[in-house]
Every structure is written in C-alpha cells, then in structure tokens.
Amino acid sequence: MDNKVNENSKNEQLEQFRAVDKDKAMTTNHGLKVSEDEFSLKAGDRGPTLMEDFHFREKMTHFDHERIPERIVHARGYGAHGVFEVYESMKPYTKAKFLQTPGSKTPVFVRFSTVAGSRGSGELARDARGFSTKFYTEEGNYDLVANNIPVFFIQDAIKFPDLVHAMKPEPHNEMPQAATAHDTFWDFIANNQESAHMIMWAMSDRAIPRSYRMMEGFGVHTFRFVNEEGKAHFVKFHWKPLLGTHSVVWDEAQKINGKDPDFHRRDLYEAIEKGDYPEYEFGVQIISEEDEFAFDFDILDPTKIWPEEDVPVKRIGKMTLNRNVDNVFAETEQVAFHPGNVVPGIDFTNDPLLQGRLFSYTDTQLIRLGGPNFHELPINRPVCPFHNNQRDGYGRQTINVGQVSYHKNSLANNTPAPVSEAEGGYAHYQEKIDARKVRARSESFKDHFTQATMFWNSMSKPEKEHIIEAFSFELGKCVEKSVRTQALEMIANIDLEMASKVAENLGMVIQGTAENKVTKSSPALSQLNTVMKPDTRKIAILVGDGFDEELLSFMEALKAKGTLPMVVSDHHGSVTGANGASLPVDHTFLTADSVLFDAVYVASNDGTTPAFKKNAMLFVQEAFTHYKPIGSTFSGDELLEEMGLVGQIGVLANDKVHFVDDFINAVAAHRFWDRAV
Length: 677
Known about the structure:
Blueprint: H1 9-15, E1 41-43, H2 54-64, E2 77-86, E3 105-114, E4 129-137, E5 140-147, H3 160-167, H4 183-191, H5 196-202, E6 217-218, E7 223-226, E8 232-241, H6 250-259, H7 263-274, E9 279-288, E10 314-324, H8 328-333, E11 346-347, H9 352-368, E12 437-439, H10 450-458, H11 461-476, H12 481-492, H13 496-505, E13 538-542, H14 551-560, E14 564-569, E15 574-576, E16 582-584, E17 587-588, E18 599-602, H15 611-625, E19 630-632, H16 636-643, E20 651-652, H17 659-669
Parallel strand pairs: 13-14, 13-18, 14-17, 18-19, 19-20
Antiparallel strand pairs: 1-12, 2-3, 2-10, 3-4, 4-5, 6-8, 7-8, 7-11, 8-9, 9-10, 15-16
Helix pairs in contact: 2-9, 3-4, 4-12, 5-10, 11-13, 12-13
C-alpha cells in the first residue's frame, strides 16, 4: 500500500475541496438554480418581504454566521450610558409611553462604531459610523439602530451580504483592513448604481468625523408612528449633536490612526469622565399617510433622504451621555441591538432593507452571543418585567418555576396570557396588502442619481474639493483599470465636472458631455452650516521654561470659555516661569501630535532643549496645513514670525489685549478653508 507523503500531498488533498465559481450558474447551497438574486420575495413590488423566501433566508443566515466571535460589521465600537428627556408630547402621533410626557426621563445605552473594520482596526477609517441607542422603557426595550449617514448603499436586504463581502478585505489576501479603497468595493459600487447617493456621503467629510460627540445620527429607514386612535404617520428619526457636526481632514485621519487608533473612544471616555457630557437632540420628520406619494422620490427607499427644507426636523427631546461603562466586554460588546425591538406606537414600513434586517439581527445575535438567551445578559435585559414560555438554551439565567411552559393552558390559568391592545399589548398596524408574490423592485425606487447630485450641489467649495480628493484616493488604490473606468462612468452620472476632475487626477479621460440638470440643493447637508462652538475643543499650549507668567491667566480664560488647554513641552514634569511659577506638563512632543488637537497656542520660542524650537515648528506647520486655528503671545510671536505665518488666515499673533476673545472665536470656527497651504 503506497501512502507515502511528499511535498505535494496536502495540496493534492485540498484540491478536491477547491471550488471555482466563475462562469457558473448560481444555485442555493442545496443545488437549486436561482432565478433572481437582487430582490427579496415580496407581496407586491412595494410590499413586505415574505418569510417563505428560502433563498433570502439561506443567504442572510450564512452571512449572519460568518464571524466568530466578533460582529461581522460594526465590530469596532464604544458605548456609554445616558438619559433621554422629552421636550414635548408626541401623543398626537404615537402612543409610545416614553414620548408622552414632557420632562419624563428614560435610561439609554448608546454604542458608536465603525462598520468595515475588525475590532482591532483604527477608528479614523473613512467609513460610515453606527449610532445605536437602546431605550429601556416601561413598555420594553426600544432600539433605534442608526448610522451617521441617513441613506444606505442598497435598497433590498438580500444584497447586504454582497455589499459587505465587497467592502471587507479581499478574500484571497485579506487586505486592506478597514478600507474601501480597493477593487472589489468599487467594482460593486460601479455595478450596483443604487449606491450612488451613499457613496457621495461616504466620500464626504461625514465619513471621517471629529468625534462621536460631533456626529449626527439617522434612523435611515422610514418607520411609522401610530397613535391611540390607530392613525399612522410615516416618520424618520434624527440625532442632532449640540456641539454641531464636525470632521477631520483626510491627512489628519490617516495620521491619527497611527498616533492614536483609539482616538474616538478616548475622546468619548475622557469627555464623560470630565463631566463634559455629550448631548444630542432627538428629532423626527413626519409625513402623513395622505402625502405618501407627494414627493419626487419614494419615501420608503432607504437610499433617499427627506430633505429637511421640505420636511422639517421637529426636535422633541434630548439625550445626555453621562456615565461610562464599568466593563467594555460585558456592556459594549455584549449589547445586542435590533430594529425589531419596538414598543406600542412605533411600527415598520415596507422598506425592503428594513424588512430583511428584521430577520437578520435576531439571526446574527444567536451565533455571536451563543444562543437564544442573549436578552438575559445584564446590558440587554429590559427594566420592566418579562414573562413568556421560552425556555432552556445556552446561557439561560432565569430559573422558571412551575410545570407549565406552553400556551394555551389550564394548569396555570392560561398564564402568562396575551394582553389586549387597549391594555398595552403590541398590535401591528393593519396595512392593507393586495398583491402578487414577486421578486421585483418598485419603479419608484429606480432613480439613483437625483439625490446624489442634490448632495453634491449642497456642498461648499472646500467640501467639494474633499469629495474629489476622496474619490481620487480611493479609485487610485484600485489595481484594475476596468474598475476605475466603470466607477468614473458612474459618478459622471452624478456630476460630470466632478468626475472629470477625478479622472484628471487619475490620468484618465471621461467621455461625455452630459449636463447636470438637477439644480436642487439642501443647505442642511453642508457641515459649514452646522453649530460652531469652542466647547471641549482641545488646545495644545506649546511652552518651555522661562515662560511669561501672564500665560497662566490666559489659560484660565481659555478654560472659562469651555476649551481644554493642554501643555505640550520638550520634557515631562513641569515647566518653570520667569518668576518661578510652575506649570504641569500634560504631553511632550514625543507623546503628542498636532493631529490630536483642535488648535495650537504658541507661548514660547524655546525650551529646555535645543530641539524645542524644531519640534514646535513641525507641530505648528502640521496644524497650519490642516487649516486649524493658530495663536501666539509673548515669545511665541517670534516663532510664528520666523515661520512666516503671521498675517495668514486663522493665525493670531502680536495682540495680547484681544488675544483670548479672538482666539476663542477662531477655535469655534474650527477650520480656515481659505488658507493657502
């Protein structure tokens, strides 16, 4: 018997398991040929997704179970506890009890996250951000599973596995990590043009936020409010940060990932520890059922926004995050959100992406958290009592007493018993459905470019430049020329001038003369129209020994304005003033970097070591190229003069009398985009 092992033995064994899918017909895992892979099975082309869709369930179930043990998406996250307070009653629109009484407070838990990267990835990746909130209400848990971008890449959940497979590191070499700048992602985008609107947001500054505290949240989908009388309204949910919506620049983002890959979680943790509690107002857009078809887009389409100028955002409450977790794994990692966790008065629509998520989230929690009892983990348990006939399984913590575990029964007086709608039992909104079972998409979903162009039209000049640079970077990382070509052809449908500038950067040419016929814009989409405040901004104070001790009063004045001045020098410990005063050092040039601060204040021209000036100049120059405010007083004026920066936009020097007020105004402005860098 010849069973000798040689250098080819293992490869020969593996060969029988290799599968080549290229040029083959698509089938299920059981060999059944598939006729459609883009549309889930629905009751009519705008109807709800049907449970009998075995192809969707097989595809989504496999996807849900592809990661052990971390989340498939949103793996890199950080959370905090807080409280939600109602401003005004929503009783005319919804019977949800936690929205009924002005001044009422509901405990919440929020988890922020990136989407594409693994748990160990950097937090400043160009990516959408998760912004999920669990409300622990008296009627049960309500989960608002949101993102910082109000639209999504796809219209039907059956395509979600395809999107994420394309976005994730490529399977043949598992690169790149936490990045969409590669062939498979852009190949997907170019060949699935419903992504056009989302890709504009992803290439904008919204995809590289300054912090979780300065980031909007959106429920993405259209939901329903239902009041006590059974009347329904369509609704979209918003979180509006009171500090405004702000971002970093791309070069900054790349450097921060190296200098501090925990930048966003550190910012959130430290802000809460300091008592600078992040605050977000809760807003709703409401459309009556009678106006469902009154717009030039389908309100159920998850790739569309409701422009705020057309449907105003009504701010109805405020969330304050005021407590860090005790244990990141037990709380932040074990928390399980689900868009199907609703309370009476909040219901679903037939958005086909939402319909699929209602299946997928339960399915994925089963594998990630080890079984059906993930709701019993402390962070997931409702604060109200819960009783049913679910029993046993991995991780069961409840000790159910008695012999009865079924319904209906006589041995326990038919309890636990269903509760009528009038007594608080959840009853689904009775939407009339009269349709054929189809795999199709409504014609009203097929305009992929109008709102993408509207987004472009809404951007300021610097924001447009950043989008062009982002497209150029991402497509420049693609190896296959065909992918770049297809992607350029797609974005040319959004705006030809934009696509032409991207093509020029790539050394390519766009063929076409199409004009942009969409003139509508939405000013609410530009971050230049956001709230501008100096509060909690970090200011690097560059100072060495022998400093002018009037600096101490300047720093106190900056603190009084809500900023966070931090001393950076050439050594740890403290620096000593001209008259012997001591100032503690927070960071050195070795442990700090300009990208970790919002502004720079130069108070000294030299320090203890000869390297002080060189390091200070490098620190200032980088901040200057990132358009940040720069100020100086005392001998620091000399350093800025030597660098030739005095008189430049956003640079304040040689004016001690007005310095604090002027510098605070500059810090509030955040960036000076007209600066020549």
